[in-house]
Design goal:
The chain has 581 residues and is α+β, with helices and mostly antiparallel strands. It has helices at 9-13, 17-23, 50-61, 77-81, 92-96, 103-114, 120-139, 203-206, 213-231, 239-254, 301-307, 326-333, 361-364, 385-395, 410-415, 429-433, 443-450, 454-470, 563-579, and strands at residues 37-46, 66-69, 86-87, 145-147, 167-170, 173-174, 236-237, 258-259, 266-270, 273-279, 282-292, 338-339, 344-350, 357-358, 368-371, 404-409, 437-440, 506-518, 521-522, 529-531, 537-543. Strands 1, 2, 8, 9, 10, 11, 20 and 21 form an eight-stranded mixed sheet that branches. A hairpin with a 2-residue loop joins strand 9 (266-270) and strand 10. Helix 3 (50-61) runs parallel beside helix 19 (563-579), helix 7 packs across helix 19 (563-579) and helix 17 crosses helix 18.
C-alpha cells in the first residue's frame, strides 16, 4: 500500500498513527508515551543518501515494507553534492560502451589497490554484486548512466588497472520526475554554470576551453544541452543531483516514505537483536532489521579530534553538514567494532571563504607546483588526491606541509579555468582577504608573502622549470602514470603535466587536507552485517556507505570508489534481509 501523498511529515509522525498509515501497517502505539512504537516495518533505513536510498529501493522491490529516516531537511546527503562518479567494474554500461574488462582482471586490480587489510570475501562481494545492483537501479528508477571515457583508474599500472578507466556517471535526468519533491533535493557542492548541462567528464575540458578546440566544443555542447532542456520545459540534472533525484524517484514509484528532519537518536535492541530505531517522536520498529546509511562523521569535531591525525577539524570537508557520525556512534553503543576511523576520502582543498574548494584539475594542470613550509616540493601534484593528503600528514610532523601552497604564474591564469573563475579574470577579493590566496610580482616576494624562505622557493621553481622543459620530473615522477594526465593540457609538450613558471605576477593558493567525507565506520562482513570486535554478527544491524568501514581500505581504486561500494552494499544488505527472514 502506498502512503497517502497528502500526508505531511508532521502528520506522519504526529500521534503515532500517521507513521503507521504511511507504512500501510496497523498502528502499534501512541507517540505521547516515551518510547512508544509509532510505526513498524520490515526494514528501517537510516539515511537518504546513495547507500540508504539504494537499500530502500531494493527492500521495497523484494516485497518488504520499508521507511527511510533522514536527519537533514533535504534528501541526497553527500552523494547529491558530488560529481557522482561510480566505480563498479564489469557493469552493463561499460559493456555497452565497448569497455573490455573481466571479473578476474577487476579482482586482481582491487586486491592490489586495497592490500591484505580488507577481507577477500568483502572484495568479492562488492565486485560480484556491483553490476547486478546497477542493472537493478536502472530497471527500477529513471536513472541511466554513461562511461567517463578516459578517466583512468587511479593506479592503472597495477595488475588489472585500466588507463581508460572503469568509472561511470549518471546521465541527464529531468527533475520534473520528482514533482514538488524536487525542492527537497540537497543542493550541489558547486552549482552548474547557468544555462548549461554539464557532466563530470566535461570539467576536464571546460578547464581548457580558452586554449583547446575540444574544450571549446565541449563548452558549446554543454550550452546546447542546456538550451534544448529549457526549450523542452525540463529541469535538467546531472552528476550527484541526477543520482539522488533518480533514486528518490524510484522510491516514489515504489511507495517508500522518506521522512526528512527525522534524526536517529539510538538503536533499539531486544534480546541481543536490533529491532528498530528511536527518533524524537518514539520508536520505529524493524521486524527484519535496520540498515544504517547515515554517512560519516566529517562534521563531528570531537570524533575527528579523537580518531584522526592533527591538524583536523570540520571546516575543510565538503561532506554534507548533517554527517556527524550519529549512526556510527549508535552502532558503537550496540557493540559494533569500528575500523578506518583515522582515514577519510581525502583531497587537497583550498579554504576559500564560506566553503573549502576540493582541488582537482588546478593542482594537476601544467604550470603549477606544491611546496611545503620550507619552500620545497614534496609530492607528485598530479597523484590521486587521497595520496597527496596522506603524504601531507605523513610529512607534517617533521617537515610541515599543513598548510602547503599551490604556486602558479600569470601564464597559467591566462589559460585555465580556476574553480569557476575564467582565464584572465581577476580572482575574487575575498579570496585574498581571507588569506587563501597570495599574489606577488616575483617568486621571492611570493615566498615572503606565504612565509617560506624566498631563495628556497626560487630554487624550487628553477629546478621545476628545468624539469618541465625536459618533460621528466626526476624528483616525483609527475606524468609517469596515465592517471596523471587526465586533468592536463594535451597541447603542452613534451609532458602535458609540466610547464615552466615564468610570467609575473605569481600566485600561491593555500592547500589544506580536505575530504569528501570520512571513510571509517562500523566493521561489516560480505553480507553488510555489522560485526563485533570478536567477529560475531550483531543480529538485525547492517551498514553501508560511509557509516561502514570502506571496502577500499586506505586507498582509492578510481573515481566513484565512494558511491559505487555505498550503493552496492546497500543493495547487498537489503537482499540479505529479504533472503533471511
Amino acid at each position: 500500500m502506498k502512503p497517502d501523498p497528502r500526508l505531511s511529515r508532521r502528520q506522519v509522525l504526529r500521534g503515532g498513527a500517521g507513521l503507521a498509515l504511511a507504512s500501510g501497517l496497523p498502528f502499534a502505539g501512541t507517540a505521547s508515551a516515551a518510547g512508544a512504537v509509532i510505526g513498524e516495518y520490515d526494514v528501517v533505513v537510516v539515511g537518504a543518501g546513495a547507500a540508504g536510498m539504494t537499500a530502500a529501493l531494493t527492500a521495497a522491490k523484494r516485497g518488504l515494507s520499508c521507511v527511510v529516516l533522514e536527519k537533514a531537511a533535504k534528501f541526497g546527503g553527500s552523494a547529491a553534492r558530488s560529481g557522482a562518479g561510480i566505480w563498479i567494474p564489469c557493469n552493463s554500461v561499460l559493456a555497452a560502451a565497448g569497455v573490455r574488462d573481466t571479473p578476474e582482471q577487476a579482482a586482481r586490480y582491487l586486491a592490489a589497490v586495497v592490500g591484505p587489510s580488507i577481507p577477500v570475501s568483502r572484495q568479492r562481494a562488492f565486485l560480484a554484486n556491483g553490476p547486478a545492483m546497477l542493472s537493478f537501479v536502472m530497471a527500477n528508477s529513471p536513472l541511466r548512466f554513461r562511461w567517463m571515457e578516459g578517466y583512468s583508474d587511479y593506479y592503472p599500472e597495477l595488475p588489472g588497472g585500466m588507463p581508460d578507466g572503469r568509472s561511470i556517471e549518471p546521465d541527464q535526468l529531468d527533475g520534473n520526475v520528482l514533482g514538488a519533491e524536487l525542492a527537497n533535493l540537497n543542493p550541489a557542492y558547486l552549482a552548474t554554470p547557468a544555462g548549461m548541462v554539464v557532466f563530470s567528464a566535461d570539467y576536464k575540458w571546460l578547464a581548457l576551453a580558452a586554449v583547446n578546440p575540444k574544450g571549446a566544443a565541449v563548452a558549446a555542447a554543454c550550452l546546447a544541452r542546456g538550451t534544448a532542456a529549457a526549450l523542452a520545459g525540463q529541469k535538467p540534472l546531472t552528476m550527484g543531483q541526477s543520482l539522488a533525484a533518480g533514486l528518490r524517484a524510484g522510491l516514489q514509484r515504489a511507495g517508500v516514505p522518506v521522512l526528512l528532519n527525522t534524526p536517529l537518536t539510538d538503536l533499539v535492541i531486544e534480546n541481543g537483536k536490533v529491532t528498530g530505531v528511536t527518533v524524537a517522536a518514539g520508536v520505529v520498529k524493524a521486524r527484519r532489521g535496520v540498515i544504517v546509511g547515515s554517512g560519516g562523521f566529517e562534521h563531528n569535531a570531537a570524533m575527528r579530534a579523537e580518531y584522526q591525525r592533527q591538524p583536523i577539524g570540520t571546516q575543510w570537508t565538503v561532506g554534507a553538514r548533517s554527517n556527524t557520525g550519529d549512526g556510527i556512534l549508535a552502532g558503537k553503543r550496540a557493540g559494533a567494532a569500528l575500523d578506518l576511523m583515522d582515514d577519510a576520502w581525502w583531497g587537497p582543498a583550498i579554504p576559500l571563504p564560506g566553503e573549502p574548494y576540493f582541488c582537482l584539475a588546478e593542482r594537476t594542470l601544467p604550470g603549477g607546483l606544491m611546496v611545503d613550509s620550507a619552500g620545497k616540493r614534496f609530492v607528485n601534484e598530479a597523484a590521486p588526491y587521497s595520496d597527496v593528503v596522506h603524504t601531507m600528514y605523513d610529512r607534517n610532523p617533521t617537515s610541515p606541509t599543513i598548510p602547503a601552497w599551490l604556486v602558479v604564474d600569470q601564464h597559467y591564469r591566462n589559460r585555465y579555468l580556476f574553480r569557476d573563475v575564467a582565464p584572465l579574470l581577476p580572482l575574487p577579493d575575498e579570496w585574498y582577504s581571507s588569506g587563501a590566496v597570495k599574489k606577488a610580482w616575483s617568486v621571492e616576494a611570493l615566498g615572503t608573502a606565504i612565509g617560506v624562505p624566498p631563495q628556497a622557493l626560487r630554487a624550487t621553481v628553477n629546478r621545476f622549470n628545468g624539469q618541465a622543459l625536459s618533460g621528466v620530473d626526476s624528483d616525483f615522477r609527475r606524468g609517469a602514470s596515465a592517471y596523471d594526465h587526465y586533468y592536463t593540457d594535451p597541447y603542452v609538450l613534451p609532458n602535458s603535466c609540466l610547464a615552466a613558471l615564468w610570467e609575473p605576477p605569481f600566485y600561491a593558493f593555500k592547500i589544506v587536507p580536505g575530504d569528501l567525507g570520512t571513510k571509517g565506520g562500523m566493521r561489516t562482513d560480505a553480507r553488510a552485517r555489522v560485526l563485533r570486535a570478536d567477529g560475531s554478527v550483531i543480529p538485525g544491524l547492517y551498514a553501508a556507505g560511509n557509516a561502514s568501514a570502506a571496502v577500499m581500505g586506505s586507498s582509492y581504486a578510481g573515481a566513484g570508489s565512494t558511491i559505487g561500494p555505498a550503493m552496492t552494499f546497500g543493495y547487498v544488505a537489503a537482499n540479505d534481509l529479504a533472503d533471511h527472514p
